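Format notes (please read before filing issues)

Several people have asked whether sequences and structure tokens are stored in separate files. They are not. Every record keeps both together, in the order shown below: the sequence lines, then the token lines. Line labels are part of the format and must not be stripped during preprocessing.
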Amino acid sequence: MSASKNLTLLLAAVAVAAAGYVLSGGAGHGPELQSPGEWEQVVRVGDLPPPGDGLSGPSGGGSSRVVLAQPVRDVETPKGTEPGSGTTVVYPLDVELTMLLPGALEVPEDVMSIGADATAGLEGSLTGAGGKPSPGDVEFIYGPNVGRKIQSDARGRFGASDLLQGASIVKVSVPGGKVAVREVVLAQLSTAQLHLSFASVATVSGTITDGEGEPLPSAEVRSDGRVAYTDADGVFRFGAVPAGKVLVTARKAGYATTRRVVGVGFRQRVRPNDFKIALNEGAALEIGLARSLGSTSPGYAILMPAAGAGASAVPGGGFPWYEVNPVKIPRGGRAVVEGLPLGAVAVRVFKDGALAVPPSKNVRLGSVIEGEGPAVVMIDLQPAPMIRGVVLDEGEPVKNASVTIEAADRTTVSSKVLGQRSPRASLQIVMPSVPAAFQERRTDGRGQFEFSSHPAAPSAYYVTATSKDGTRRGVSVVPRDGKEVTVLLKDAAMQTGEVSVKLPGRFQALPVEVRVQGAPQGPQMLGPGSDLLLEGLEQGTWRVSASWRGVQVIPGAVLEVGEGRATVRGSLPPGAIQGQTAEERRRVRGS
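Then the structure lines:
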């Protein structure tokens, strides 16, 4: 081939490469965006960032979708003396950070990260009695997340993305003593919504009857943390009830406790004739242990509707099993549960250091009104496999340390031990975690503790120990079939790090909404040319995701957050850079 032809081909190749460079915005090098009004930035979804930027995990599947650069006409630059004095971008960049593994704990390859199954989310908003956004608390009072509390921010918004799957009961409290109790159903990898307004209230009245339709006076009725009693006509009333799906529970001696859900709208008046709850004959159950085995701690029973009694487990109706579970069985004594529905109930007993034989017993319950006494079930026990541990601080045993034992996969362990075919059964009925999934202990004078595993659900366990004064903390892993564990305490002060999110190509400010573990951190305005700096993150492994109006900007990057600054790069769509038209801004802002 002649030299002239070689030169021609070389020049053509250089031209093509240069054109590609311009269209890609410099591929992250040199000028990152052509001047406004010339070219839009190329958007590459799923591309890996360049080496050395702190990214240590997957990029989200490597999608090949590419938005080609196109000439931009009639781009409106923000009014002001300098770029960035205003912005035409009205939609925020949504950034979500979720911790996958705290600290620098060495975890065996075949063990799930702690909390890896806690992928359900809840988000919502609270409005106070005055009609303005309100601070408040959302506390889980029944279900697998019991004890967890989420707080709303100054705009009344709240959220969490690291919750365990399962139906749950939450108590919502705002200033002024206002309370609402609601049921939420949390599924893995999805986010449930809960929006409550204490200004949008209704009145709920109803009638409590027996199975024959006759009114029952003096029945106790509970709703939103309040208690009322029926009058001579069986009527109860609750005023100022926040609109939504309201839980109402009625009970009376000799009858089965009954729960109903009634949907009410703003300013709606639910009248006694429109909302009736019939209480059927109730039953009682006495539970005892055939012999004393295991530790000196009490045993616990969990009651569930037996096979064929599914009507008791229908969401929104039936018996509130969560109000009786778990049933405490004192050492050497028996427990009596009243107000149960007629029919068959499955009884599962748990005791530290012992296993129930058989794992579950079905008992048929008769009516106490018809003179039948409590049904009696005696549970036999056999020794259980034990895991023994010790807590040390600089080689010395630590007495009275708090120890929590958590299965690596709490959801699966709970469902298997309860005899459920699938973890999704927890979406149908509010149930607690079983001891094989989560336990709490205290060390003795020699810094020692022990706990039971369960052969029905072999699992690895994370053991977290905290000194009595809370200043020292340690975490260890017990692999499957492990028998012993040592937890070494160190300074409990949280070690923090930071993440820098690079968003090249911007020439004006960008609104940003950040959520950490689902909790909103408040809106911010990111200046032109600035990186988004996320500080105060606990050191460990984090997943970072970002989107703008549903378009992925960072598709689930996994980062190690340590002493140095971790970095991740996102690629913004054109609208997040160039902004929106004046007409769209007026429409969005309502002006």
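For reference, the curators noted about this record: Helices lie at 3-23, 410-417, 574-578, 582-589. The CA atoms of residues 14 and 61 lie 32 Å apart.
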